[in-house]
Amino acid sequence: MRIKLGSGVFALDLLVVVLALVIYFFPSNVLRIILGIPFVLFFPGYILTVALYPRKSGLGGIVRVALSLTLSIAVVTLIGLILNYIAWGIRMESMLYSNVAFIFIVSIIAWLRRRRLPEDELFNIGFTLMLPSWGKSRWDKALTVVLVLVILAALGAIGYAIAKPKVGQKFTEFYILGLEDKAADYPETLNVGQEGIVTIGIVNHEYQEVNYRVEVLLNGQKDDEVGPVRLEQNEKYKETVTFTLYQAGDNQKIEFLLYKNGDTEPYLEPLRLWIDVK
Fold it and tell me: Nearest 5°: CA angle at 144, between 141 and 149?
């Protein structure tokens, strides 16, 4: 049976939609990993290759695959570079939306270029589906069985590796940012009664759901508390924190203490700022 898939652009766009829905509704899911790998390493380059070379005489199959992989890496890297210099930043959501937008826009361009060409000149994906033959000898049959078992074992190993990934180092990112969400321009000098502003950030890399809370201490006395905040693996939390000092003096200490899962002792070393109050 001869099966034709056309250029594969429509099927690829459907997979992209499925991936976006899986990420939105199921943030921790094996299907997200399975679709995410080709979404980053193959889909953008393949769509661009179809748009650039719509004719079947332009490139061979192996060259198309190699070019798709190379262009995908280049496209994703360029998108990340652009995002790094705009307000969105390099985050999972911004990378997902940018890649989806790129794939859909280039898909439209590929469709417009292909519709101008005769059908017999278009690049199309096709293959012949045939039932496997057992061969005439016992040796052929044995080789077929071994080949099937090897393929099943390889698929099983890949599935297990995805479902049970190796757990890396467990840790939590805890940081404070100054003006414009940068690790700089922290308040150093304030007037009595003037409000100081910083942003605290927490990122969970503990490979499990964690409840966090943050205590803010002014000169050793508790002044404010943030949380509790429940974060999934790789989930990030940012919150603006204000504080006010009412006594003049140099080197007054502001401390930020992170607690985990209801512990009474800080999980990490406190973050500190030293402020001169005039």
Answer: 130
Span 188-237, pLDDT tens digits: 888 888 888 888 999 998 888 889 999 988 888 888 888 788 888 888 89
**Which class would CATH give 171-277?**
mainly beta
For 95-132, letters b (16+ CB in 10 Å) and e give: bbebbbebbeebbeebeebbeeeeeeebbeeeeeeeee
Q: Sketch the domain layout of the chain as residue ranges.
A: 2-140, 171-277
pTM: 0.49
Angle at 108 between CA 102 and CA 112, to 5 degrees: 145
Residue type, 115: R
Per-residue pLDDT tens over the stretch 123-154 = 766 555 455 555 556 776 676 677 677 767 76
Contact, 275 vs 194, CB < 8 A? no
- Report which secondary-structure segment, H or E, holds 96: helix 92-114
Task: Find the helix packing angle between 9-25 and 92-114, rounded to 10°.
Answer: 160
Contact by Cβ (8 Å): 186, 196: no
